[in-house]
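A quick aside before the break. I want you to see a complete sequence-to-structure record at least once, exactly as it would be stored in a machine-readable document. Don't worry about memorizing anything.
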Amino acid sequence: MKNNTNTNNMPEAGILYDLAELFKIFGDESRLKILFVLGEGELCVEEISDKLNMSQSAVSHQLRILKTSRLIKGRRDGKRIYYSLADDHVHSIIAQGREHVEEE
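That is the input. The structure line, written in tokens, reads:
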């Protein structure tokens, strides 16, 4: 059988690598939980920790990874940093992924 894949739309290698790295970030259940709660609104580490019953150090570790991947952003208010989803793309990726796995 002949492969009819149109390679004209194939992104360059660097883009494919970055895309693969992005999907790896979504491959961790703890990070997904954090993204889901941040989809509801802006929260600080303590609030995320309480909502997810995770230690603050575990939450902070995952937040660093999510921030480095540009999936979340932080806003300082005094001594606290409040985190939120970086943009609507993050919400869309999660929503479409959820819709896909919930299909019958």
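Two observations worth writing down. The first strand starts at residue 43 and ends at 44. The CA atoms of residues 49 and 55 lie 6 Å apart. We'll return to this after the break.
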